[in-house]
Amino acid sequence: MLSVLIETRNDEEGLTRTLASLIGGAVEGVVREVIVCDTGSTDQTHHVAEHAGCQYVTGGVAAGIRQCKGDWLLLLEPGARLVEGWIDVVVDHTARQTMPARFSRARGSRTPFLARVFSGNRALADGLLISKRQAAASAKSAGSAEAIARGLATKRLDAEIWVAPVKQKHRSRQ
């Protein structure tokens, strides 16, 4: 029923945390497949995906959308973790709604207002539950999962997510 797509690049540790939070959904039969959409990793991302039983595609989220089988897609950042109770909320939403939805941030994962204003907002930070049809249409002009999530009118789900930590940019020493 639900295909989970995780677009990643060199984030094997974050991918592991996200996959662990999806186990309940797989056991319940809600998560049909998990597709790791790689954008050029040079770490062990491929092995993490393979050992977890995920499909692994290169070429980013557009390639994953073309390959997925679910009618609904859940796009997540590597490192994001869904909080217990998300399964029933997602099942209810997909049965009754057609519009995309995002998770509510877990209390300890909420960023203070001024920090949000000055840090820039990641459109995919709260995850994105979207129909495959809508995602495929958006993917034609969007180059990434983040671009698909940006600017969408969404419903707020009554289920929580721990937001992935912001990846630090590595500076080369001179």
| Total helical elements | 8
Order of helices and strands: EHHEHEHEEHEHEHHE
Tell me the fraction of residues in β-strands, as a range: 15-25%
Oligomer: single chain
Contiguous uncertain segments of 5+ residues: 169-174
Gyration radius over CA? 15 Å
Helix content: 25-40%
Order of strands across the main sheet: 3-2-1-4-7
Structural class determined from secondary elements: alpha/beta
Distance between the termini: 51 Å
Largest sheet: 5 strands, mixed
Shape: globular
Mean pLDDT comes to 89
Number of strands: 8
General description of the model:
- This protein is α/β, with parallel strands linked by helices.
- Helices cover 34% and strands 25% of the residues.
- It has helices at 12-21, 23-27, 45-51, 61-67, 86-96, 113-119, 132-139, 145-149, and strands spanning 2-8, 31-38, 55-58, 72-76, 81-82, 101-105, 128-131, 155-162.
- The strands form 2 sheets. The chain has a 5-stranded mixed sheet with strand order 3-2-1-4-7, with helices on both faces.
- α3 (45-51) links the parallel β2 and β3.
- The radius of gyration is 15 Å and the shape is globular.
